[in-house]
User: Fold this.
Amino acid sequence: MKLFYGAHNISQKDIDSVVEVLKSDYLTQGPKVSEFENKFSKFVGAKYAVAVSNGTVALDLCTKVLGLKKNQNVITTPITFVASANCIRYRDANVWFCDINPDTYNIDLKKLEVLIKTKPKGFFSGIIPVNFAGLPVNLEEVSRIAKKYNLWIIEDSCHSPGGYIINSTGKKIKCGSGTYSDLSIFSFHPVKHIAAGEGGMITTNNKILYDKLNILRTHGITKKKELLNNNDGGWYYEMIDLGYNCRLSDIQCALGISQLDRIGQNLKKRWKIAENYFNHFKNKNYIISQSSLTKGHAYHLYIIQVKNRKELYDFLASNNIYCQIHYIPIHKFPYYSKISNNNENLINSEEYYKKCLTLPIYPELSKNDQQFVINKIDEFFKC
Assistant:
């Protein structure tokens, strides 16, 4: 049996939900799309949600509706999937990387403000913080910084549906609620909390941005009478902006709805798996875990750091345990190494990459399988 770092689970209810759509009148552009959006917006506590074809498109649409222009400057973290930075480049804007906090692996908020202060007022346009591995960034503090320097915020929550922070007043603030961000994005890739095959969601509390997103995801086309220049009849529509075809189908939305219905119990399972890893490794001086156990952590990934990472990776693979590395620092890739502006200031990110290893974590990982992973790691270190 092979164990991977992540795995999807499809229940009979998921299958029945998809079959129901396959037998219906709509495979796409039907009622399941708005149903999924409404349920998801309630889940995260946002006013609006827009379903799109994947998380990368979600990021791209966000930068477009926020008006990001050529040669403007945006800050993100180098320890994330490339899409968090690529969405900036799609607009011919400049990516500035801010180093990570060595304890949380999230963007370092002290370094973030220092970086902003090194440039003239108005130099930066926005920030894209990432809730890495499922641990939410302190978005309240990011918001304080953003307001101070007049920056927008896109919260990359692909790893953290169901995650939350406790703000300075003691209130629980869910990832994607829009309390401290202009826009938030999610992914429904198979290894994520909600597996729709592919798919993404954008959440916001801003009605203007919401309306723009709805038009842009469908070729820039609208049938709303109040937006039309002419109206030749019930069939009539107009293209009022240069949009895309990045809709999510009813088939995928039905699967997403069914998966969303059990995300609560799956989050509890992920947290329990993380707790087991943490409790076993906490006194092992050769293993470092991501901060301490945090209730608001959505635990998309469970990451450890070890000095002899490659040897452990190969040893586990020889025992059918297929771990992963999250992530290669974006600024080290050939494309970004040629255009990045501040690669010399990313010491924590580079040190993290030398040691990081993602262990198997997903709701259907059995206690025996997790113990097998733990035993093999102990065997490698001869505990």
In short: The chain has a mean pLDDT of 96. The first helix runs from residue 12 to 22.
